[in-house]
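$ ./design --mode recover --in tokens.txt
reading tokens...
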């Protein structure tokens, strides 16, 4: 399938040739030519934690809408100005804004050989836009990885989460503490609590998840793309289960 920029969009079974940056993915444990993955789940279920491992395993370009938006807020860019109030309240940023932000990346050269999306889509509308765009490019979503966790677990995790100021490396005061209190092990920057991790905002984000993102999960299930993982297990165990599921998908391809 030819892309507007003249590149060839590889499908399963075809080797991507246009973009040398995808070559490391071929050397990864998975041999599928294009791995297009999304992570879905309640706030605090461990999407970012697993994304960190998966992007290393498969050398995938990684796009976290939360990270992109928080960086935009920090910079004071037009996107940040538009998104900031929604995020502080725990509301979703409007679909049109998010679709524009992500489609630009999915269509970019970096993601030509595959991608890992974290936090997008979050509504059925966003999923439809992604699906139409991939269809138009002759590409497919490989799987929607649902990392699930009960509300009580989410509340415990988010109240103890701390994130480093420099690179958003994530810790937990009890489950994954830094070596030195309040300081990131990896880059030495201070650890902070996210504005939307305060108790009342977490409760609201969970309501938004149940109302607006649960239907998306059903949508992916109906398309046979959903893979379910119990996010209340230890991070390494969740990671092993996801890796096993991806290996099975590769065998079936
Ligand atoms: P976003 O940043 O995407 O937040 P979220 O989905 O609510 O997810 P989190 O980042 O809070 O949690 P996570 O699942 O990544 O958990 P983590 O690995 O950190 O979005 C923020 C806001 O941006 C939204 O509210 C919205 O306003 C806006 N937005 C973003 N995308 C949007 C979109 N598509 N449409 C509209 N608006 C959008 O883990 C949490 C904690 O638990 C950590 O401390 C970690 O160390 C610990 N932990 C992780 N796994 C385990 C485990 N297995 N056992 C024990 N502890 C664990």
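writing sequence...
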């Amino acid at each position: 399938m030819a892309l507007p920029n003249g590149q060839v969009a590889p499908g399963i079974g075809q080797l991507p040739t246009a973009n040398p940056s995808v070559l490391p993915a071929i050397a990864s444990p998975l041999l599928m030519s294009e791995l297009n993955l999304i992570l879905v789940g309640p706030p605090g279920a461990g999407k970012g934690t697993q994304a960190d491992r998966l992007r290393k395993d498969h050398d995938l370009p990684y796009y976290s809408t939360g990270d992109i938006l928080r960086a935009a807020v920090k910079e004071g860019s037009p996107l940040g100005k538009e998104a900031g109030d929604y995020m502080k309240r725990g509301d979703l940023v409007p679909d049109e804004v998010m679709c524009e932000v992500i489609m630009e990346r999915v269509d970019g050269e970096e993601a030509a050989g595959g991608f890992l999306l974290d936090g997008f889509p979050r509504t059925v509308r966003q999923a439809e836009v992604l699906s139409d765009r991939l269809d138009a490019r002759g590409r497919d979503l490989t799987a929607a990885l649902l990392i699930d966790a009960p509300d009580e677990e989410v509340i415990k995790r988010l109240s103890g989460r701390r994130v480093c100021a420099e690179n958003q490396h994530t810790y937990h005061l009890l489950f994954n503490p830094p070596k030195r209190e309040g300081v990131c092990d990896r880059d030495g920057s201070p650890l902070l609590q996210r504005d939307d991790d305060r108790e009342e905002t977490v409760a609201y984000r969970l309501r938004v998840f149940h109302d607006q993102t649960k239907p998306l999960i059903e949508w992916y299930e109906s398309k046979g793309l959903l893979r379910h993982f119990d996010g209340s297990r230890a991070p390494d165990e969740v990671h092993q289960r996801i890796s096993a599921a991806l290996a099975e998908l590769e065998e079936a391809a």
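exit 0
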